[in-house]
Amino acid sequence: MNDKITVIGAREHNLKNITVSFPKNQLVVITGPSGSGKSSLALDILYVEGKRRYMESLSSYARQFLGIPKKPDFDRIDGLCPSIAIEQKTVGSNPRSTVGTITEIYDYFRILFARIGTPHCPSCDVVIEAQSATKIADAITQKFQGHLVTIAAPLAIERKGEFIHELTDLMQKGFYRCIIDGVTHKFNHVDDIANLKLKKTYKHTIDILVDSFTVEDQDSLARLQEAIQRSFGIAQEMCKIMVEGQEPALYSSKRMCLACNIAIPELEPRFFSFNSPVGACTKCHGLGIYNRYDQTHSVMDGYALMMGTHVQTCDQCHGMRLKKDALAVKIDNKNIFQLSDYSIEKLLLFFQNIQLSESQTEISMDLRKEIVSRLQFLSDVGLNYLSLNRTARTLSGGEGQRIRLAKQVGSALSGVLYILDEPSIGLHQRDNDRLILTLQSLKNLGNSVLVVEHDVDTMRIADYLIDMGPAAGIHGGQMTACGTPQEVENNPNSLTGKYLSGVLSIATPAQRRKATKWLELKHARANNLKDVSVKFPLGVFCGISGVSGSGKSSLIFQELIPALERVLSHHKSKMYDADTDLQGVEHLRNLVQIDQSPIGKSSRSNPGTYIGVFDDIRKFFAAVPESRARGYEVGQFSFNRPQGRCYECSGDGVINVSMHFLPDVVMICKVCKGKRYNQETLQILYKGKTIADVLDMTALEALEFFAAHKILAKKLQLLCDVGLDYIKIGQPSTTLSGGESQRIKLVNELAKRDKDTLYILDEPTTGLHSHDIVKLLVVLNRLIAKGNSIIVIEHNIDVLKTADYIIDMGPDGGDKGGTIVAIGTPEQVALTQASYTGQYLKKSL
Fold this sequence. Notes:
The protein is of the alpha/beta class and 845 residues long. It has 4 domains: 4-90 and 412-501, P-loop containing nucleotide triphosphate hydrolases (Rossmann fold); 133-266, Ribulose 1,5 Bisphosphate Carboxylase/Oxygenase, CATH 3.30.190.20; 517-597 and 758-844, Rossmann fold; 607-722, ABC transporter ATPase like fold (Up-down Bundle). The protein is built from 31 helices and 33 strands. Strands 7, 8, 9, 10, 11, 12 and 13 form a 7-stranded antiparallel sheet that branches. A 6-stranded mixed sheet has the order 5-19-20-3-21-22, sandwiched between helices. The protein has a 6-stranded mixed sheet with strand order 27-30-31-25-32-33, sandwiched between helices. The protein is elongated and about 110 Å long. Keywords: ATP-binding, Cytoplasm, DNA damage, DNA excision, DNA repair, DNA-binding, Excision nuclease, Metal-binding, Nucleotide-binding, Repeat, Zinc, Zinc-finger. One of its GO terms (biological process) is nucleotide-excision repair.
């Protein structure tokens, strides 16, 4: 029993009381059509229950802050390990979060620079070395002859306390005057010091003043030199020299540029943190940008900068986020920002060829080893084109997931159940091969790796396969096959097995469409694009391919779309580059882009509201004679309006009861029985159905019910055409999978326009089983048949082989990408030796 994890009686979401067992310490893949229950089993049961059991082992005090999840619906789980989920969700939108901070590599950088960094003068860039008090005194006496010089030895800078003993001791040594928090005091007796009553909790700035000297003869020079050395002695090798008519200068015997009168404070990790006041630029507070209309440059304003209004690069740190003193510290002639701006690949080369002294090498050995191993993990999962400075909010869901995966491999835990939700998203087939090796290394550490995946190559190398189905939604939730990949291939009940064995496949078109009209983009230079000029065919299916980071998204989303929007909407896009030239727009009337963002984050959002059919449905109910007689309007049939919704649950259908340190209890509303509406609204019937009954219909049932209404039926038919016939009209959007959400967005756009529209899709096969991809391709080809054009950014080789034309970016990612490697039909691209996509297409064709 200990060598297996067994789930008995799983009933969460659409799971039909299933029992599943799979081996521990193996790579297990759960597959099946979209919506068949894969994520329900892996994430909603195994991960949530593993997390819940761990949290319940903590004290009741700790549990109240953690929010223990509700126990999933199952009978028993045997052999469950502590679980860690690596999901598709993004890594956050905090403007201070970067790849370096997420992976903690930047934390190691800060320690590295604090321990072996070489400080340079921020003004003249010479290396700053430790100076003796005598050497500093000689320099000062030569420089300030004939001036009135005062020496301040800071006893307490930004330190809390009373300092009575320290002040008394200094008074006995002949220091009679001091500036305490900006006020000058002269002491005649020790009691005067005791009567200061300094606050213990207040951060003071206390300077002990030596008598001022007018430097004009040898005696005063000697006294000045003695005073400077004594001041350095009591001020922990730091003092302030104040010369009449000049700004005070801080002198340090640790690190000092005597030519520029600049001292560098003692190096510590916080000195290199843009999240700490010690290191962050004082103007932009470590954000690198600020609002040009905000005169105070407040910290809170930095978070509002994400909206993108009135933003400019900080003119003090020039976007580098740190103070100039921190940026003046270098390792092998590079500061911390410059290293963080390197790509992962370039950073690995830097640390392999770094030039260090013997002492630096010894001190940094463990740090460099940790940094290199984490960089290598990032490279192994296909992220070698990213830089540590890349902000988290610019990462795709797939990139964020692989960053978290690399971090987990680096932690070297064992005995853990890792659950990954489609880690191959956004990966070229070449990078996917690297990812598979990473998953195997995670398994070899002694972990159980459970992957929800549609990728055929990942399925083939799995130790164990679980195929869910047979279809999706209410038609799924069952285990149709399990065993080794070979056993699943030979199982006649497995839809996945038929695609693995080749019985079913995505067919290559017998004939390719040829473009007669073209859209030409010239001089594209965004990010890593190298002055690219490219022609996009119109009236056909065009695929944009290339390895991760090769410039696909930059070409389409930062160059082509802004340029198109500028012309089509007759106003200048914010992101438009004036040097970019676009020709052939006269062949288009509309532009539609469909990205991977979810359709809604609220349980009140649903497919019906998103595609607009719910508006029509509410109008039908409002037009019923009884509704008119009662004076009901359309708002009566909205669960977001007070007049029609249930007063007890406010239209949610459920009541959430907070239990503090226990998990919240979610109950079906006893008044409306989960129907969301009040009794008056539910008394109105349309064709014998209430508004709640209609919301509970699947798309297929609703299509039959509203068959006579052409506009509404068209949208419902599209839902069925893209394989979402099982989706309920009122199903909360929070329960939809990534693939389901994207196809709903596609349906919403398909229902709007007729012809001469350019559709741009960003990896529409995300979360789709091969059987669902077949349905999707039918819909896309129908669009082209109506006179539209489609551009798809895609990695899936089965989709690319069905394209009429391919533009392959590369040859690699980051600095090594940004060019066009191959163009033409899939057959032509397959013959291009320099194209990684071509190599995989050749095998597939």
